[in-house]
Amino acid sequence: MSRRSAFTARPVGRRAVLLGMAGTALGAAGCSTATGPTTGGHRGTGPVPAGSTTGAPASPAPSGARPAHPALPRTKPWRPTSAEVEPTVKQRAVELIEALGAWTGGGGVAAAARARAAAAHQRPALAAQAGPLLPSADEAVLQVVDAQYGGILADSASVLVVCRQWTRRGATVTAGGTTVDVRLARTGGGWVVTALHPARPGPPEAVPPAAARRVLADSRIELPPAAADDLRSGRVHDSVLAAMLRLAGTYRIAVSVVRSGHPLDVFGTNRPSDHPRGRAFDVWRIEGRPVVDPGTPRSLVERFMRDAADAGSYNVGGPVLLSGGTRPNQFFSDATHHDHIHVGFRT
User: Fold this and answer.
1) Is residue 322 helix, strand or coil?
2) Which range, of 29-43, 155-169, 332-346, averages the lowest pLDDT?
3) 23: alpha, beta or left, given left = phi > 0 and alpha = psi -120 to 50?
4) Labelling 48: which of 22, 73, 212, 312 has CA 20 to 30 A away?
């Protein structure tokens, strides 16, 4: 499967952006794993709603003057905590995505992107793999929502960097974002990024399946851009959609990855992952509590995992190894799933 991204973005009207920027500053959505804010409640790409907490307040213009252009939301760097299995791995992956996805003065061009990668002490050639992070725009800001492991071994790793991005071209601001599978290798000098694989959700259907529309409209299910576009593409199985809706009846959940932006194979193996086939989803936050946070009650995590199994999942992974289940080996735990809960389906 090609790793090129096909995420879509919709322009935001000037008036809507100015109204949105008059709201509160971009605030953290209860994530103790990052100093930067997340942007809960939005479904993929599209306008920043007036009064939304994703909008940053615009600087007041002098009386009688009109601003030169709409302001972009304020963002903050995402940082891992000591609770991570390998904090440095996520730090290196996120630093590159943050460097590539934000600029001023037309910095989306290739040469400027290479320079930003170099300034982040990463290989400049990686900018050529950034894909949707480098749209044609005058300026851009990027907010990492979450960074979770796609896999971590002794000398290699995959970090799935889930992000939202806002770009301005002239007087038009566009809200978008993607998920990037960042590959890293351990060297004598530490962890280095070796490749970038942005999400490729596929084109949206004219009318997405009814269950997908219900998930997209459910305020208790937080979907980042690539995951929302996965649902719009019609390539996510009904079993996944039904489980999301069932779990949302009990919990507020923040989904990190559904289909695109995930390794094609289970990391470190040649076994196909359920994610690219639209048969799995990952949850990184439950009831506003990050799975990776030691302060999140283990009882909440365990109850969610068991409820996911009851919702039909044959393969529930997380930071806790549970016993029991209606199927052999229904639950699993490893270092990769220290920071999220995997919910997989056979069909």
Assistant:
1) coil
2) 29-43
3) beta
4) 212
DSSP calls for 211-258: HHHHHHH-TTEEB-HHHHHHHHTT-S-HHHHHHHHHHHTT--EEEEES
The Cα-based distances of 303 to 16, 282, 297 in angstroms read 41, 16, 10
Do the Cβ atoms of 209 and 234 come closer than 8 Å?
A: yes
In our burial notation (b when 16+ CB lie closer than 10 A, e otherwise), range 20-59 reads bbebeebeebebbbbebbbbbbbbbbbbbbeebbbbbebe
Amino acid letter, 211: A
Q: Model-level pTM?
A: 0.81
Residue pLDDT, tens place only, 6-25: 334 444 443 343 333 333 33
Q: Two tokens at 153?
A: 């071994």
Average pLDDT, the chain: 85
Cα 118–Cα 120–Cα 124 angle in degrees, nearest 5: 30
For residues 5 and 179, give the distance between their C-alpha atoms in angstroms, rounded to a whole number. Answer: 9
46, 131, 194, 322 from 127: Cα distances, Å: 25, 8, 11, 42
Beta-bridged to residue 315, according to DSSP, are 344
Kindly report, residue by residue over 257-307, the tens digit of the pLDDT.
999 999 999 999 999 999 999 999 999 999 999 999 999 999 999 999 999
Answer whether 318's CB lies under 8 Å from 343's CB.
Answer: no
Phi, psi of 114 (to 5 degrees): -60, -40
Q: Collect all residues with Cβ–Cβ distance below 8 Å to 65 and sequence separation of at least 6.
A: none
Q: Can you tell me whether residue 161 is helix, strand or coil?
A: strand
- Would you state the structure tokens that stand for residue 187, as one six-digit string? 């060297």
CA 64 remoteness from chain centre? 41
| DSSP letter for each residue of 53-95 | TTPPPPPPPPTT---SSPPPPP-------TTSSSHHHHHHHHH
Q: In which element (H, E) is residue 111 found?
A: helix 110-119
8 neighbors 226 (Cβ within 8 angstroms): no
